[in-house]
Amino acid sequence: MRALLVVPRLPGTGFTGDRVRTELHLEALATLGAEVTLVGGVPAGAPVPAVAGAKEVRGVPFRAASLPFSLARAAARGWPLQSALVDGSWEAALAGTGEFDLSIVLLARLTPRVAPLLPEAPLVVDYVDALAEAARQNATRDPALWRRLYWRVEAGRLERAEGEAARRARFLLATTRFDAEALPAGTVAIAIGAHVGPPPPRERDPLVVFTGRLGYRPNAVAAELLLREIWPPVRASVPRAELVVGGADAPPALRRLAAATLGARLLSPVPDMRALLATARVAAVPVDMGTGTPIKVYEALEAGCAVVATPAAASRAVLDGRAAPLRTASGPTAFAREVASLLADEGSAAALGEAGRAFVVAHADRHVLALRLASLLLSAAEGA
Predict the structure, then answer these.
(1) Model's pTM, two decimal places?
(2) What percent of the chain clears pLDDT 70, i.e. is strictly above it?
(3) CATH 3.40.50.2000: which residues of the chain?
(4) How many other β-carbons are positioned within 10 Å of the β-carbon of residue 116?
């Protein structure tokens, strides 16, 4: 079986969500014994990395210098303007790839750009996130008027791209039930989950962590809320407690805020995410917007952290009809109360952390999810 996998960014050159979803597809295809050609974007001037699980890797250098041209072309053709961020010579990269039994494309923003270039083969589109829904959220919540107007227009373009993908593809995928319900009918949810490692230590420091790519606006907004409104009353209630905000691409303003907040520090990037989580008693997830798999929730659960999340974040951590065992809270005051309660009661925090890890082992083990994805990809290739 020969498979073509087209992704916005090659692993090692982009965001965590892109990387782990690509790795999940590669693991699924490996279980099928597939010979994989991987095509994806790379920063201009960067080498094309070797990627485990791919027989051939083709890089598409981003045209950073010609971003205005890419934006103008996207606008003229009705593509999502986000597609300009991954614009490049996709025609050259996809030329001469040969025949395939299956093509897979990640993210709706890429589909209008590459779908006409794909070889004749059954197509699977993995939306990953419901991008139009995320844009609609931004159109109502972004504090800047001009950005709200931009997101309103972009939501329409993304919705058209999602619809075009549905018309072209044999199977449609997303990472959560929440996203699948916001996407065209027939979209199947297969989560990213987490790698299950050795059992973590039971005894933890009175440490709270918030993790995630801090250049992503929903995470940056949540981190600022945590530092400004949630953490001060927690620290007043539990003076020994400490907070670590960790993730790549932290904006300068967030760095300054963390430096000025008593008992808090910021790590950007994080050298070893699992090691950080393994020392924390509580993982705080005050994210109240966005779409896609809450990777930070699954990673914290797998590491044995007691998780406190907003209802919005918790609603996306539902697998096989079962909600992840965590505490939910709405608003900074209630959120701070739940975090402080778990910091003060080590036994309750440990019990909740053990239940969360058991949930991941039973329902969100990434290897098991890769097998589930492999079954669907095989059905697509065989025309089932």
Answers:
(1) 0.87
(2) 97
(3) 2-193+366-382, 205-363
(4) 11
